[in-house]
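ugh ok fine here u go
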Amino acid sequence: MAEACEDALMLDLDCRPVNPEGEKGQMAGAIGIRGGALVSWDACRARAQYMRSNREFRMSVSALNKMGRCIAMLALLVAAHSVVKAQNVARWSWQEPQAKVLPTGDLEWAPKAFEFKAGESVRYIDFESGNDANDGLSKQTPWKHHPWDPDATDKAKACKGVHTYVFKQGVVYRGEMNANESGTADGPILLTRDPSWGEGPAVICGSEAVTGWKKGADNPFIPEPQKVWYVDLHWAPRNVWMVGRDGAVTRIALARTPNWTIADLDDIQSEWWTWKNPDKPFDNYATINGERRHLAFDKEDINESKPQDYYEGAIVWTTKGWVMGSPFPARVLAVDRKNGSLVFPCQWGGAPSYKIIRGCRFYLEDKPQYLDSPGEFWFDKKGDGGRLYIRLPGDQDANTARIEVAKRIRMIDSSGMSHVHISGLTFRFTNIYWNLTAAPYWVSHESIDAEPGCVRLLGNGTDIQVTHCTFEHVHKGVRLKAMGPQDVIDQVVVDDNVFSEADSGGVELADGTTYGDVAAPTGRLYEVRVRRNKFDHIGIRPDLFGQGGALVVKYAQTAEVAGNMFDRVCAQGIDVYGAKPSGAATDRPFTRILIHHNKAVDTLLNVDDFGGIET
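structure:
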């Protein structure tokens, strides 16, 4: 009460705070106003104490009334302080940790909960039971296809404009969507799920469940043909999975030698072969068609015990030196079994830049001769399709198993879209481009699908949001690139997602520059936010020019990367480039990048360079 009276006296003496941050216990350092002049709260307090001790001073009804006014004013100040703090939190996400900080100082993943949100116009999609001739306006009359799907017909195909598209939970959507349509700032196009409709994940799937298997391989190069099952397809798969009755997913490996597994979690290449290079540890080269190529030796594993065609034309995955070290795929161009050597191109094309050093590791794949153990497949491509040969784990009968065979490379794909929000969906089982050694499009002009992504934008886009989604058993989750010199990507949000078992990476957001670019203009990447995502088991089979990093941001003007968790990543967990590429003749002022509250565990598993969190 005495303190309250003292504060009341200060108000009575026209002492009032300038700074609403001043709270009880902190008043002494605050600034007040008395008689129109700035004074310290200490001065106000001293004057009040003096008057209290003065014999002529008496606590009057007037003073009590003023004390009441004081308490009311303090309540207003506390309320104003709370409002200011709330406004700050809402305005600046970096004022929030984005992860739970434990008492030990460790960080724990803290994603925000998914909330179903719908716009004014809603359309429902049920791939199993829907019909494109329905109106799509209710859960009872859903479409089978999304309007962006090339297979859409009737009313579904005719639908345009701003809508919320709800995919039924517990249903697998087997199709692709060409998203060359935009919403508005006030009304984005939404692709989502409704927790009240169906049970289980709403899945966008790149594979087909294949049945009708026949036993016995007819290819003369396949060992133990009686243990092999086959089926004819009209497409060319590069990935196959087996799904158990409990939903557990088993990757079926492309036929390879040696038949390696990850036997050592700290050395995932421990069962690969090793280049011996007995005469020179590095700088071994051969000339093929007038061009210098890598030459590497391992007579222990490449020798005359196997025929020439066992090695010719195989794909070799090899590590390299001196730095980076990430494995890359290359086609075997020449074989010398007597000396135990292979000749193959470098990673970047042209003359070798990195070196194949004694002690680098490698394996071979994609030959029918390598289909020699359970848990492998090989595809004999004829035109657009061909014959798929498979041996399941334990040499299980293929007709008793659920086998998902990758078909679609593109899932949600665009050359230009804005105000599109994707939330709550699950992406699985994507295919990849057939030529595993294809260089990126900007080098080879072979195919943009050499670098795929489940949600991919190659062009212009503003207000692209991918939130609360799961990407599992895919090549890459999200890939956005401002491809053209005039393209702009802005207001990107990738929040609260899970990326798991992604061969090449989780997220890649990039401007339009490519390696060696000098002259402007180039496509721009402006505002980016990547927060509270979880990444695990990333990067085991990177793109030809890639490393296998989980989260890559290239030359954003402003970015916040926060609250992300990384575990078991083959290269960097976070790899952020700021400003502009070295040597680029352009200006990139005002670059602002915040990286905080991220956690990276067991990264760099397939490389000898970089950092778990690298900028």
